[in-house]
Amino acid sequence: MQRYFVSPADMTDLSVTITGDDANHIAKVMRMEVGDRVICSDNQGRVALCEIKQIERDSIYTSIIEPIEESKESPIRVTIAQGIPKGDKLEAIVQKGTELGAQAFLPFSSSRCIVKWDEKKGQKKKQRLEKIAKEAAEQSHRSRIPYVLPPVSFKSLLKKAADFDYKIVAYEEDAKIGETQRLAKLLNEMAPGVSVLCAIGPEGGLSQQEVDELIEAGFISCGLGPRILRTETASSYILSAISYHFELMR
Amino acid sequence: MQRYFVSPADMTDLSVTITGDDANHIAKVMRMEVGDRVICSDNQGRVALCEIKQIERDSIYTSIIEPIEESKESPIRVTIAQGIPKGDKLEAIVQKGTELGAQAFLPFSSSRCIVKWDEKKGQKKKQRLEKIAKEAAEQSHRSRIPYVLPPVSFKSLLKKAADFDYKIVAYEEDAKIGETQRLAKLLNEMAPGVSVLCAIGPEGGLSQQEVDELIEAGFISCGLGPRILRTETASSYILSAISYHFELMR
């Protein structure tokens, strides 16, 4: 069944109003009619099965059939801090990362980033990524849309680390020397509900100095298996491993 | 360091000759010179550190400095059987799957596949996918290039299942009803060296009848966490979970 996120103000105890692009999607793309059903989420934990009562140009009026209790969200609150990559790789990272359960994405600049975002470009990219996150959250049946945070400098990333229970940096030199213990050890220590910040370098990787600074700020440097992963594959690996460990193994 | 796969015939006890596109890559793209070093693999388990001795138009002559003993290959031999998806998604699946350790890729047709490959198109696609697998294997420092198998019908997929120790089908209806036990249970049973066939449907999924036929052929239907994954994300999830289980947790 199709899922849509609505603002909490549009979800009362009995009814949900769907507006904007989603209203258009229901009427024009899905060609739904009065009596059809959709699932609506207020992005704050409330999810409901709804029946369409009225279709207008910019608004779809529905009544709530029943609330849906579900747990689609990862018990580990993972923020992917991603060194800004080239092209549209960040869009793929946000799309796949949303499916795989990330709670937030934090783009950051580092010495080997080739792409630079000024404030205007950063703002535009953030809006585009938010749209991708919303659509991926709907498609993957999540109860919440992950946050896309404004891009930060490497120095700001170091400062933000203090807000998280655990900090991980994926470091390809660890994969090369065969470091295989730390990620599993960390996941074994984590209790449901903790927050984790995962830093992943851009295509050229993080410099040794940057990794040293991250470690000083409390990050644990982890290998992600013996093969060298592309920057856009590293976040999928970490999120899949966390899902497997906490959602399937337990 | 750059890595190249060469044919076993081009790797003697003392020297390696690199030809074709790779020779061009070394000379023109990387602009390497006599005395520079590369790593060569014969795709049959032999890997060596080599020094460039002579650069000619179509051939690079190197001498072996020392053999490299390494274990970059997954202890579980995973074949990803992928329902043929639209566009260039299969290219992304082969690229990411190679990084994540797949041993082979087997494209198959099923009732909800939108794209049909005739023999000529299938052959051309296979060659393109083999090139992607080779490049991804070099970039991710693998010792072997995964196989890209010729596309098969759904009926042939059912027959092939007999060749594998374990068979898994990723089924989104399992995710919807919250099936979370089977994948971890299966991985706990597996011993290093076993072969696993993982069937993943195309964008529209597998039909209930196809899933029933797969189960009859010995496949175990598994949920991949509580969220609904796109077809191209499912293989990354399974390969990451297998890598985490066998390469990091142990």
From TrEMBL, chains A, B:
Q: Which domain of life is it from?
A: Bacteria
Q: Which Gene3D superfamilies match?
A: 3.40.1280.10, Hypothetical PUA domain-like, domain 1 (2.40.240.20)
Query: What's the protein here called?
Result: Ribosomal RNA small subunit methyltransferase E
* A GO biological-process term: methylation
Entry's family note: Belongs to the RNA methyltransferase RsmE family.
Q: Which Pfam families match?
A: Methyltrans_RNA, PUA_4
Q: Assign the protein's first listed, main location to one coarse class.
A: cytoplasm
Q: Does the keyword RNA-binding apply?
A: no
Function recorded in the entry = Specifically methylates the N3 position of the uracil ring of uridine 1498 (m3U1498) in 16S rRNA. Acts on the fully assembled 30S ribosomal subunit.
Q: Which residue intervals define the domain Ribosomal RNA small subunit methyltransferase E PUA-like in the entry?
A: 18-64
Please state every residue range assigned to the domain named Ribosomal RNA small subunit methyltransferase E methyltransferase: 72-243
Q: What is its EC number?
A: 2.1.1.193
Per the UniProt record, the source organism is Fictibacillus terranigra
Family matches, as InterPro entries: Alpha/beta_knot_MTases (IPR029028), PUA-like_sf (IPR015947), RsmE (IPR006700), RsmE_MTase_dom (IPR046886), RsmE_PUA-like (IPR046887), tRNA_m1G_MTases_N (IPR029026)
Where is this protein found? Cytoplasm
What's its top-level EC category? transferase
| Keyword annotations of the record | Cytoplasm, Methyltransferase, rRNA processing, S-adenosyl-L-methionine, Transferase
State the reactions this protein catalyses.
uridine(1498) in 16S rRNA + S-adenosyl-L-methionine = N(3)-methyluridine(1498) in 16S rRNA + S-adenosyl-L-homocysteine + H(+)
Q: Which GO terms describe its molecular function?
A: methyltransferase activity
